[in-house]
Write a structure and sequence with these properties.
Blueprint lengths: L13 H12 L2 H9 L4 H6 L1 H14 L15 E8 L2 E8 L1 H11 L1 E4 L17 H16 L5 E4 L6 H14 L5 E5 H13 L3 H13 L2 E7 L6 H18 L2 E6 L3 H7 L4 H18 L3 E2 L7
Amino acid sequence: MEKLKVNIYDYTDDELISEMKKAYLACPQAIKYCNDLNIPSAKIDENIVKIFDFVCDINYCNKCPGIKKCKKQNPLLCTKIIYSQGEIDRQLVPCKELLKQIAFQNQFLVRDFEEDWLDSTLRSIDRNNGRDKALERYSKFIKEKDNGWIYLTGGKNSGRSYFAAALTANSARRERGPICFLNSTLRLRELFDLGYGKKKEEFDKKLDLYSNVPILVLDDFGNEFKNDFVRDAILFPILNNRAGKRLFTIFTSDFTVEEIETLYSNTKAGAIRAKQISKLISNMAGNEINLGDISIY
């Protein structure tokens, strides 16, 4: 691990050394840490410059301004004191907030939305009747482990995708994932290309992931490329498996569930399968939730 760059101090300046010692004695966290390592007082005095860097890091991090505003010399890294064979040294380790952020982001196995939306919260959502209904359903998932689905419609600029991103970000913070947030146009076409290209192993792997991931979002649902293979070998198996296992699923769409059925009913046989798909969604999600047509996001 990268060693901390040593600040240049005047080691003969007794007054400065004295201030460093005072800073150490005024920092209970640093004292406890050094005591836990069984560092003798004499060793602390000999290495007070290294200890002082450690104290400064502790004091800064105790008033953490947030990951994006960290202005330390080594942002998002913390000084760690090492004591081995009678010698004191320093190392840099990732800060706790960075590790929390990494764990949060790792909840998303697939994330087809912009990075800024990771900062979205339920409080950042403008409220209206449709959003209140959706939040009520989501609350049942969080508090009651009710995995009923959510189907969001509304105008193109009504914030459907942002709303779904806020819900999944909240779920990630609660460690309710893993999560796949899919752009339907992109990901269903990707699966079709894998299946059509006879890349069975990769196709099966992705299909299994989307079928079994604890939280799935099908964003912009209904605008994907459609044919018999997409309907019968991709979409139906995913939704049928998720319904059978009651896995939480969110849809955002320009279309109602009835219109989705029509879009996938290109033949008589296809109409039967399309009806199965619409029934699966309706049974699991109930009525669509319309977020309106106001351009907000």
